[in-house]
Every structure is written in C-alpha cells, then in structure tokens.
C-alpha cells in the first residue's frame, strides 16, 4: 500500500479545534481517554479470544504501558489488545466515532458550547483528546488475526496519513509529541498520580517505562527506577467487588465516567450483590441527565456484563428492560459459562434472574428515594420520568410498582409541580370514583381546556397528560387503586354525586328537548366536521367544546398513522354546547346566513380554546369582523 494522505472530514477539523482550544478545562484527562481505549481494546481481544483461540495464540500477558522519553518529549501509550487494520483506522480515527458527526453537530447547535464536555463523551472523540497536549500524534497498530501493521499520523493541521509499517506483536501504540507548554506529563509522579486518579480500577496493569535511560545512570537510581517501574501504577481492583464503605465517592464517580463518558458524574450510585439462586455483584448508576438519543430507536448499550472479570458485552436488553435504558453500570457473575455467546445470553435462565434482580433493585431504590427525599426524586423523575412510564406499557409484571412512581401535573397543581397518583386519589372529591385526566400537547393548553370546567366546579382535580408518551399510556394505565382512568374530553362524563348526576341528566334532557331544532341545524351545518352535536355536562363558563367519542383513536396516534401513510380512521368528534350559556341561547334563536356564520364561529372558537389550529383562519377573521361591526 502507498502512503495515503487524507484530509479530516470538515467536521473533524472543526471538532479538533474545539477539542484543543475550548473543550476540556483539564487537559490531563487525555491520559484517561487513552488508557480507557487501551483497556477496551484488550477487553475486545480477550472476548474474541474466548471463541477464536488463534487470535490469542501468542498468549499475551494483557497489559498497558506508558513509555516516556524526556529527551524526545514523547509519551507512548501501548496495549496488546485487538489492534486496528487500515479500514479500522480510517473509520475510527478519520471520522468521529460511528455514532455520527451529523448528530454531533446538530446537538452542538441545539445545546451550545456549554454542553460540549457531555457531547464529546457521547459521540466518542476520546482519542482526539491527545491533541490537547500533543502537536503530533502517531498511532502504530497491528490487528489480531492479520499480519500487516499500519501507521496513522497527524499533526492536526494537514489531515492525517496512513501507511504500512512494522510493529512487534499485536495491539496499538499511541505516540504523542508534547507541546512546549505540556511537558509536565513527562514526569513519572505526575503520570502515576493521573493513573491513580482516573484509571485505578482498569483491570489490566498500567506500567511506566523510561525510554531515555541515561547511559551513566547511577546504580542506586537504577534500582529505585526499576522498582517503581516494575509495579503497576493502578491497583486493578474491580470497584464493584469492593465493599461500599471502602470506596470513595470520587472513585465511583471516576469509574462511572470511564464507563459512560458522561463527565457530569452519576446522580445515584447503587452497589449491590445478588445472593442465593444466582450470585453476582453489580454496580449500578443513575445519570443526572438523559442522553440526547434516549428516545431514538436502536439503543445499543446497557449494563456491562462481566463473567469472572472478562467483559462479555453491554448489549441493551441483555440485563435491562428498555424502560430502564438510562441505568448504567456493571454486573459481574461467576455463575455464567465464559464461552457464552451474546445470542445465548438473551435467553439464559441465569441472565434472566440477574435481570429481574436488577429491575427490583432499581425500583426499590426509586421507591426509597420517593419516600425519603421527594426533591431528589423529582430531579430524577424530571430527567427520566418519560422513559420510566414506558414500563407501564410493556412490562406487566412491574406495571403496578411503576405506576406508584409516576407523577403528573394536575389542573390544580402549580405549574411545574407534579403529583403522585396516590396523592391524587387521597385528594379526590367526595363521591368521585374515577381518576380524571386530559391529554394535550402543552400543559398550558390542558390547563385552559374548557373540558375541565365542570370537573373544577365539582371539586375534582384532573391529571394533565402532556408528555408525548402519556397518550399512548392511557390504554395501559387502566386503573390505579381500583379506580378507573377517565378522559374528561371523551365520551360521556358526569361529575358529582348520583343525585346530582340524575338531576343533571334530567336538566340536560329538558334542554336538549328545547334546543332540538337548533342542535339539528348545527349538526347539518357542521356535518363534514363533527359526528354529533349535543348538550354538554362538562361546561360551566364556555359556550361549547369538542370531545372525542368514547373509543376514538387518540389524536396523536391518528397523526402518527397518517404520517406513516396509513389513512387514519374517521376521527370526527362531537360538539358539545353549554345549554345554559346565554350565547348558545342567543344563537339558537338565529336562522339563515346569520345562523350559519354564528355556528362556524362557535366551532372555530372551540378549536381555539383547546389550542388546536383553525382550518380557515381568513374566514374566521372575516366572520369575527362582521360580528364585531354588528
Ligand atoms: P470511543 O472510544 O469513545 O469510541 P475514541 O475516539 O476514543 O472514541 O476512539 C475511536 C475508536 O478508535 C474506538 O471506538 C476504537 O474502535 C478505536 N480505538 C481507539 N483506541 C484504540 C486502541 N488502543 N486499540 C484499538 N482500537 C482503538
């Protein structure tokens, strides 16, 4: 192969500039990134070696080396892991990780520079951190299972080159030539401190080696040097195997960052172990914020599974249900065979037991938090509530426990406050037997909805379902504490005691009788828009509102079906009029064109009141202007 020079993709050039100039306030983390990559590379080699013995025929002692040359001002971080071939190099170091530059730029645009450190982690640009301290980086690598080594080199400004090269043994070496003002990293103690600080739990020994040993090194210096270079800089103790009391919060936090690349640190750390049927150790984390792609399909990584210290995989759904996909961490069990394939794990009984224990632990942690520290729970729920809710829909086994963890804003709650279902039930009006809710895209619209009027009058609070998932969930929520969920904007809803309901029905029948002719002509006027026109039980102040039929498809579902090109079924709604409203009485006395215009205005005003768009705005304004002139 000829030496090949390539330009970084434009986005990368821009990225590199950001990385070097504004990204990490602490440049020192470049070492963490490189050691972390080295460790991942060994994990992968080890894992593949389980089934493809040839790959590890050189039976290496897995290790990471940091070789420093003070004279040449270089540091080389080497591993004997999986290595890379020319394609890998191009893919991994020529473009920003596969997760997508486009997504990265998009996110950057939306979130601004503030969010950079968080973004960097999510989009895998760890390797580029080397350019924060180095003006030249050279990667020499040989992939296991191949015979040709390659050299990747870049000084950032002029793109990068890839050419064939030579390397003893498999693996990767990243050589950095430090910038003038970054010489501190040539010092043994500085490096040693950094490894302890960021990479202590890395499962492979990280050793230091002095390259430029002076020819005339004194005997005692040599002894001292050899002694400190003979020992790994890290303790290699898997954090999840240590007792909680022996681990400092900072250690957990560093491990979390290593695992997730979320530099914000964890929100909650949950170490626990399974005993009895299946033995395992787990270290779970709840992040502070949801990653930006949490609602994108095709999430791949979940909890990392180790079997006797060997990393097996972190495929989502192996150990976590999707509604807990925000949980991060590690599970280590010696009850699984080492040679399991990932596919086999999907239906392994031991894995199923671990999964169930993990779910139980996360739920009990949340239940505890809810009980002991409501404010903290609100923080959690604000970040992940919408994901947790999915569990009600897909996980029948846990639906009841999940429901108790859900919070909603209500018609009565202050904006921004949410209420647990059990508190809603506790505060139900006397005689109220159902849980009321209303769906809307925005909380403000829900709060203003005319459909809430009668509920308010009867002292009934109404849950506001404004999360996009809420509407889908209404089907699965079914009931809570023996009480049905009822949509106040759908079907027949009546409030108050049985006597009140009876009285209301009678009054309505009477009103309907009086307004019979009017209702019929309105129905005729609006025949292409509404299914029916009737007297309402839910209005007190507004003249009219639109309600869905009892078994109507939720509007969001209908929108989705249309978006997918499947014509949604007829979703005409019902126009309900407030029989005791003076406007209704007035309009009912009209006829001819006057009646038509007034009915059109009434209908449009019902749409506006619920926050829906009016089909023909020009017509609406014209009618309104005409009315005002009168
Ligand atoms: P991330 O590690 O988050 O994916 P990096 O920019 O650090 O992002 O690395 C990009 C990719 O380069 C890695 O996913 C991996 O495939 C490859 N890579 C980096 N360092 C090594 C290494 N030491 N050995 C093998 N592959 C590596």
Number of helices: 22
Indicate the proportion of strand residues. Answer: 15-25%
Through-space gap between termini = 87 Å
Question: If classified by CATH, what would the architecture of the largest domain be?
Answer: 2-Layer Sandwich
The level 1 CATH classification of the largest domain is Alpha Beta
Bound molecules: adenosine-5'-diphosphate
Number of domains: 3
Overall pLDDT: 86
Question: What are the low-pLDDT stretches, counting only 5+ consecutive residues below 50?
Answer: 96-101
> Largest beta sheet: what is the strand line-up?
1-6-5-4-7-3-2-8
Total number of beta strands: 22
The name of the CATH superfamily of the largest domain reads Histidine kinase-like ATPase, C-terminal domain
Taken from the alpha-carbon principal axes, the silhouette is elongated
The CATH topology of the largest domain is Heat Shock Protein 90
Summarize the biggest pleated sheet: 8 strands, mixed
Helix content: 40-55%
Helix vs. strand class:
alpha+beta
Radius of gyration: 33 Å
């Amino acid at each position: 192969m000829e030496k090949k020079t390539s330009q970084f993709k434009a986005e990368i050039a821009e990225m590199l500039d950001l990385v070097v100039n504004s990204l990490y306030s602490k440049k020192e983390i470049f070492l963490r990134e490189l050691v972390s990559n080295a460790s991942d590379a060994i994990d992968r080699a080890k894992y593949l070696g389980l089934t493809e013995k040839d790959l590890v025929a050189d039976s290496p002692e897995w290790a990471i080396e940091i070789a420093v040359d003070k004279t040449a001002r270089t540091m080389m971080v080497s591993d004997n892991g999986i290595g890379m071939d020319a394609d890998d190099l191009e893919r991994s170091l020529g473009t920003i990780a596969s997760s997508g530059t486009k997504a990265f730029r998009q996110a950057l645009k939306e979130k601004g520079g503030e969010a950079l450190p968080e973004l960097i982690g999510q989009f895998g640009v760890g390797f580029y951190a080397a350019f924060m301290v180095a003006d030249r980086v050279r990667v020499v690598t040989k992939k296991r299972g191949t015979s040709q080594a390659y050299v990747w080199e870049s000084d950032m400004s002029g793109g990068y080159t890839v050419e064939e090269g030579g390397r003893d043994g498999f693996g990767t070496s990243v050589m950095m030539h430090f910038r003038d003002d970054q010489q501190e990293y040539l010092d043994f103690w500085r490096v040693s401190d950094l490894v302890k600080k960021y990479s202590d739990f890395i499962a492979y020994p990280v050793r230091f080696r002095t390259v430029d040993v002076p020819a005339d090194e004194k005997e005692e210096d040599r002894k001292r040097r050899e002694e400190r270079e003979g020992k790994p800089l890290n303790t290699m103790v898997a954090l999840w195997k240590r007792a909680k009391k022996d681990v400092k919060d900072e250690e957990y936090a560093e491990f979390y960052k290593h695992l997730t690349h979320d530099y914000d640190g964890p929100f909650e750390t949950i170490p626990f172990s399974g005993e009895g049927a299946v033995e395992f150790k787990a270290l779970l984390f709840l992040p502070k914020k949801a990653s930006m792609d949490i609602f994108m399909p095709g999430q791949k990584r979940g909890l990392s599974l180790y079997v006797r210290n060997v990393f097996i995989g972190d495929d989502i759904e192996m150990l976590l249900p999707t509604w807990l996909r925000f949980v991060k961490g590690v599970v280590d069990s010696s009850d699984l065979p080492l040679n399991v394939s990932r596919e086999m794990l999907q239906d392994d009984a031991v894995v199923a037991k671990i999964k169930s224990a993990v779910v139980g632990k996360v739920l009990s942690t949340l239940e505890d938090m809810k009980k002991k520290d409501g404010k903290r729970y609100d923080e959690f729920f604000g970040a992940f509530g919408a994901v947790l809710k999915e569990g009600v829909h897909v996980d029948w086994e846990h639906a009841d426990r999940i429901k108790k963890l859900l919070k909603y804003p209500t018609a009565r709650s202050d904006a921004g406050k949410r209420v647990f279902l059990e508190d809603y039930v506790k505060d139900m009006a006397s005689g109220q037997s159902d849980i009321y809710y209303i769906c809307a895209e925005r909380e403000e619209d829900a709060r203003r909805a005319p459909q809430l009027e009668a509920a308010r009058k009867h002292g009934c609070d109404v849950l506001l379902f404004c999360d996009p998932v809420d509407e889908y969930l209404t089907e699965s929520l079914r009931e809570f504490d023996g009480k049905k969920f009822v949509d106040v904007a759908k079907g027949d809803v009546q409030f108050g005691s049985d006597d009140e309901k009876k009285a209301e029905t009678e009054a309505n029948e009477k009103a309907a009788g009086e307004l019979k002719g009017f209702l019929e002509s309105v129905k005729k006027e609006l025949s292409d828009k509404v299914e029916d026109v009737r007297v309402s039980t839910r209005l007190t102040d507004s003249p009219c509102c639109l309600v869905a039929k009892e078994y109507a498809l939720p509007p969001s579902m209908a929108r989705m079906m249309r978006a997918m090109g499947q014509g949604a079924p007829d979703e005409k709604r019902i126009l309900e009029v407030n029989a005791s409203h003076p406007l209704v009485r007035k309009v009912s006395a009209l006829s001819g064109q006057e009646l038509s215009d007034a009915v059109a205005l009434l209908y449009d005003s019902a749409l506006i009141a619920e926050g829906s768009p009016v089909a023909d705005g020009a017509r609406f304004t014209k009618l309104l202007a005409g009315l005002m002139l009168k």
